Amino acid sequence: MAQSFLMEVCVDSVESAVNAERGGASRLELCSSLLEGGLTPSLGLLQVVKQYIKIPVYVMIRPRGGDFLYSDQEVEVMKKDIELMKTQGADGVVLGALTEDGRVDAELCMELIGTVDI
């Protein structure tokens, strides 16, 4: 029995998105600033990528580089980014948050996922 797998490729430009799809990617993770580990891309980048790509495009929701401990204001930005990305055709989002002791902040992640509803 052949195993199927999903190949998701992180991209940060229209050119890299097109090349990833041509190369067999099943889904894209659209980011900006890959050198910083990926940040939330612009709405313009999402819109243009969606014009050229047929595979699902998931958008990174990360307001800044560095750690994954977010202030209340940063969480507010993340929620707004999720809402805006949904309205512009994102097929899903990629996100994460940690607690001060380095564990996944499941409560915050679930709160953010609750705003996704894509």
From TrEMBL:
InterPro entries: CutC-like, CutC-like_dom_sf. It comes from the Eukaryota. Pfam families: CutC. Signal peptide: none annotated. Belongs to the CutC family. This is Copper homeostasis protein cutC homolog. It comes from Ataeniobius toweri. The lineage of its organism: Eukaryota, Metazoa, Chordata, Craniata, Vertebrata.
